[in-house]
Specification:
The protein is an alpha+beta fold. The chain has 13 helices and 5 strands. The chain folds into 2 domains: 65 residues, lambda repressor-like DNA-binding domains (434 Repressor (Amino-terminal Domain)); 174 residues, Beta-Lactamase (2-Layer Sandwich), CATH 3.30.450.
Length: 265
């Protein structure tokens, strides 16, 4: 549903759990003026829209949505990987992926759609599935679907619970229909609704959650890090995530050092 600026502002303020007085103080305006903005009795300037969006700590995509709902032109562009305007970003991503070799690394967007991967990632997928899938790949679906990686994850429940809670947090922070739809799709997989309601707290929590794959007699134990690009001035750039995997034991490290397939671009 398309909201006008006042509705949009009120919706986000309540989502952030802020009173009008609290938000007004952070945004540098008065509670009275904020009340008028929410009710539609006053129209914001472009700078006030950006001040309020910043105070609500929303993404560049949502800042554009704020501007559009107030009748202003969008400020933040949305480039596309592989196009000239993001050539420096492409080079940086390629460099990071190359530095992670021979271990896996994936570049995904905010909804876990795969944008590119390195040779270590290809080796991991080829080992588990027998081949690198053609066409679009969503890492969230691949991880949580019983038809893809789930049968090979020894600690699937641990990993799935950790991941689904991350997607839930993203949906709360993002507030978009697309993020809500992704969460609903993932929760429709067998066993996910019940798992999402469980506590699953270990008696002695580990410092890192292992991702333990097993196929035949081969076990791979990995942990991951997620990086983003700093100081983004573009919607696409802000939403990029780089997930890098590291071995948790010597056999896993040796597995990835044995071969270096070509990077998927």
């Amino acid at each position: 549903m398309q909201r006008n600026f006042g509705e949009h502002l009120r919706w986000w303020r309540k989502r952030r759990g802020l009173s009008q007085l609290e938000l007004a103080g952070v945004a540098g305006t008065s509670q009275r003026h904020l009340s008028f903005l929410e009710s539609g009795r006053a129209a914001p300037s472009q700078q006030m829209v950006l001040n309020l969006a910043g105070a609500l700590n929303v993404s560049l995509r949502q800042q554009n949505a704020f501007l559009g709902s107030a009748g202003f032109a969008l400020v933040w562009r949305e480039g596309k990987l592989g196009q000239p305007e993001l050539a420096q970003v492409d080079s940086a991503l390629d460099y990071v992926l190359a530095q992670q070799e021979p271990f896996p690394a994936f570049v995904v967007d905010r909804h876990w759609n795969l944008k590119r991967a390195n040779g270590g990632a290809a080796r991991l997928v080829e080992f588990i599935l027998g081949a690198v899938p053609e066409g679009p790949v969503n890492l969230a679906d691949a991880l949580l679907s019983p038809a893809i990686l789930r049968p090979f994850l020894v600690n699937w429940e641990e990993v799935a619970l950790h991941f689904i809670r991350g997607v839930q947090a993203d949906a709360i922070a993002d507030g978009s229909a697309q993020s809500t739809a992704l969460l609903a799709r993932l929760l429709a997989y067998e066993g996910l609704p019940e798992l999402a309601q469980s506590a699953a707290i270990e008696e002695a929590p580990r410092p890192l959650l292992p991702i333990h794959f097993r196929k035949s007699e081969t076990s791979l134990r990995l942990f991951s890090t997620i990086a983003t690009l700093g100081t983004p001035q573009d919607v696409t750039v802000q939403e990029i995530r780089i997930e890098s995997f590291f071995p948790m034991d010597d056999p896993t490290a040796r597995f990835f050092r044995r071969a270096k397939p070509k990077r998927r671009g």
